[in-house]
Each structure stands twice: as C-alpha cells, then as structure tokens.
Amino acid sequence: TAGNNSFKSAMIGAAAGALLGGAVGNYMDKQEAKLRAQMAGTGVDVVRQGDNITLDVPGGVTFAFDSASLNPQFHPVLDKVAATLVEYNKTVIEVAGHTDDVGSDTYNQQLSQRRADSVSTYLSSRGVDRSRMVTIGAGETHPVATNDTEDGRAQNRRVEITIVPVTQ
C-alpha cells in the first residue's frame, strides 16, 4: 500500500511540492470531494484512510481478461482522474496492479505490473507528471475477496490508485 515505507522515500523525492501541517487535511478533503463527484456511477470506489485517498478500479471495467490494454470506454473516467491529479499536484501517486490467483505467480506478477504501467502511462499522457508516480505489480498477493468464486476473482483483478499528500 501507499503507506509502505519501502516506497516512502522514492515517493517523497518525486513530489512536486509539499503541504504544511494543517493544510494537508483540507487539501485532501477538497480532492476527495472532487474525486467522489467525478467517480459517481463509474464503478470506481473512492476510499479515504487518514490523508490517503485510494481509487479502487475494477479490472473488468479497465481491462479485458488476461490483458493490460486499457478499455477505451474507461478513458473518460481516467481523464477525470488525471485532471484532478494535475490540479492537486502536491501529492504522489501509487498505481498498483492486482490479479486473481489463476495462472502462475510469475505470470500474475508480470500482468499486474503491465496493468499498473498502462494506467500510469495513460495518466502521464493526460498531463500527470511521471515523476509523481510509482507503479507496483502486486500480482495475486493482496486479494480483497476469495479466489474460490468467479465473482471473488473478478474483484481481485483490479488497479488501485493511491494518492498521498507530500508534507514538510
């Protein structure tokens, strides 16, 4: 997750600017409200944990099965995300790809990385500074549902975009 210390220094080093103390919560509140309004009805969940905001993007919406190519129908949603990330640029962004457990660990790791790369490349093409983004292929290691049912496996095939404020 974005709070993972192994990525913290890279993320802070990549940031365009920093927020001071009490400004962080207010800044993230505004960004969260905008994202919630934009993501309404898209299938993307907006989850707030402390000052971090995670967009949980279902794989079925974003990618075809066993593919890292973005579905064109999803471009308008990512365009909205990108516009918000450009506007609220005192953040760093972790893009993490996830898979179900069908297939080998190695294959799923590579597929999840390609999916994360596809999303970050698209966001970059819409003006989000690449130096603000960290991409992670999490493979099948962080399921949110059981892999014993098709519905559960579908929930595990996803991309999470976590937005973290940069503070001084």
Query: How large is the share of residues in beta strands?
Result: 15-25%
- Kindly state the mean pLDDT as a whole number? 85
The helix content is: 40-55%
The SS-based structural class is alpha+beta
In words, what does this structure look like?
The chain has 168 residues and is α+β, with helices and mostly antiparallel strands. The protein contains six helices and five strands; from the N terminus they run H-H-E-E-H-H-E-H-E-H-E. It has a five-stranded mixed sheet with strand order 1-2-5-3-4. Helix 2 runs antiparallel to helix 4 and helix 4 crosses helix 5. The longest helix has 21 residues.
Which SSEs are present, and which pair or pack?
Elements: H1 5-14, H2 23-39, E1 45-49, E2 52-58, H3 59-62, H4 75-87, E3 91-98, H5 105-125, E4 133-137, H6 150-156, E5 158-165
Parallel strand pairs: 3-4
Antiparallel strand pairs: 1-2, 2-5, 3-5
Helix pairs in contact: 2-4, 4-5
Name some characteristics of this structure.
168 residues; alpha+beta; 6 helices; 20% strand; disordered N terminus
Structure summary:
By secondary structure, the protein is an alpha+beta fold. It has six helices and five strands. α2 packs antiparallel against α4 and α4 packs across α5.
